């Protein structure tokens, strides 16, 4: 995959590929994409009828554009988790499910979107304990979010992103026990996180945060996503006038092993009779011969999407699995 250099590359792909029937979850803000580009955390691959973008966060976030009947480029080997979320009107995920399963991703969570108009019902009074958090509350906000949400499905912002949200006034705190994170975009606001630490639930903290938030956004429509199985949260939102609006999302996940694991897997399949570890002397101990080397180059090229030239096929580069890994990482960075 290539390292993304400009936001315009993504904008151009959206203009080129998006038509009626196109599948995409690529709705990243320019600001978030720019941050990833600056940190060298954005990789992409394009095809005639599809586009794949990865943000190298923890977990890795997967975004795509695919015309009808198109396939996506294969995911490169990573160490860790890859997560992809897709939202749509209705609940027929057949096409996107086929597309994402082809990458080895499996569904792990379904969410439903709820919306609330200002005139839905009257809002209860908030609490004097609720306040707008500031940059000095970074550790508290981070602790509440990580203590309440799953890192794979909770859309927890990085500490840098959370610091920006605090500076923008988009976080409300109730003591050190509860938090509400929201955005305000044009005519609507999105409630992104409502969290109360487990030991402090049932004390009205979530209701106080929600009431304060709704009072602050005024005439804006509010939207949020809630997990299908989270009936307690759904009941709270419904009491405040939220209702399903027909949008559903699914979160897909893949656990990836590291590049070294993949190299060892290839070598062990190529020479099953040998005991191979990261520091095995492949050439010196004659674990692989010239015929194995030719096959190995082909397997590595396909697995890591790199071009291994004749000049790269040297005893030094293929001395051990560790030197092979160094070669692969050098070629991927070029």
Key phrases:
Non-ribosomal Peptide Synthetase Peptidyl Carrier Protein, Chain A, Aminopeptidase, 13-stranded mixed beta sheet, 3 domains, 26% strand, single chain, alpha+beta, 334 residues, 10 helices, 33% helix
Report low-confidence residues grouped into runs of 5 or more. none
Q: Measured on Cα atoms, how large is the radius of gyration?
A: 24 Å
| CATH architectural label of the largest domain | 3-Layer(aba) Sandwich
As an assembly, this protein is single chain
- Average the pLDDT over all residues and give the rounded result: 90
Task: Count every beta strand, where a strand is a DSSP E run of 2 or more residues.
Answer: 13
Distance between the termini: 11 Å
**CATH topology type of the largest domain:** Aminopeptidase
Overall CATH class of the largest domain? Alpha Beta
Characterization of this structure:
The protein is of the alpha+beta class and 334 residues long. The chain folds into 3 domains: 2-111, no CATH class; 130-248, 3-Layer(aba) Sandwich (Aminopeptidase), CATH 3.40.630.30; 259-333, Non-ribosomal Peptide Synthetase Peptidyl Carrier Protein, Chain A (Orthogonal Bundle), CATH 1.10.1200.10. Helices cover 33% and strands 26% of the residues. Strands 1, 2, 3, 4, 5, 6, 7, 8, 9, 10, 11, 12 and 13 form a 13-stranded mixed sheet that branches. α8 runs antiparallel to α9 and α8 (259-270) packs across α10 (321-333). The longest helix is centred in the last third of the chain and has 15 residues, at 290-304. It starts with a strand and ends with a helix. The model has no long low-confidence stretch (mean pLDDT 90).
